[in-house]
Amino acid sequence: MATEDDRAEIARMEKARAHAIVAADHAILARITDDDYVHVEASGRTRDKEAFLAGVAPDGGRFDRYELIETMIRLFGDAAVVTGTFENSFISGTAPALVKRGRHTRVYIRRGGTWRNVSHHATAITSPLPET
């Protein structure tokens, strides 16, 4: 049964994931990300764990910011669904930074007592966010 400790653990993992993307810390990302991972970009492109990790800091580029703006965590036993909004910035060479805003859904499952991210799906936000 999922508990508030599980919710806190997922929240910590979300923050660690965002920080690791900016730091290009593949070790942390590999530990958080399940081997059966599916990553769906806002463009519709899909990647597995290996391709996701390779895309975090490809030759000639890097994320210089990855901010979680809003995060909602729902627990369902040994599964957690995280939804929210994010903004990130990617720098490549001398080109202007590519800033992306989006909504995300990530799914975590608990295997052997450890939470792992098994799925990520992003949708680009191209207009201002509505007031809430």
Question: Can you describe what's shown?
Answer:
By secondary structure, the protein is α+β, with helices and mostly antiparallel strands. 27% of the residues lie in helices and 49% in strands. It has 3 helices and 6 strands; from the N terminus they run ααββαββββ. It has helices at 4-23, 26-32, 49-56, and strands at residues 33-40, 46-47, 61-76, 79-92, 98-111, 114-124. It has a 6-stranded mixed sheet with strand order 2-1-6-5-4-3. The longest helix is centred in the first third of the chain and has 20 residues, at 4-23. The termini are far apart.
Radius of gyration: 15 Å
* Arrangement of strands in the largest sheet: 2-1-6-5-4-3
Strand segment count: 6
Question: Secondary-structure element sequence?
Answer: HHEEHEEEE
Classification by helices and strands: alpha+beta
Give the CA-CA distance, first to last residue: 32 Å
Specify the overall morphology: globular
What is the multimeric organization of the chains shown?
single chain
Specify the biggest β-sheet. Answer: 6 strands, mixed
Q: What proportion of the residues form beta strands (DSSP E)?
A: over 45%
Q: Stretches where pLDDT falls below 50 for ≥5 residues?
A: none
Query: What's the overall average pLDDT, rounded?
Result: 92
Please estimate the helix content: 25-40%
Number of helical segments? 3
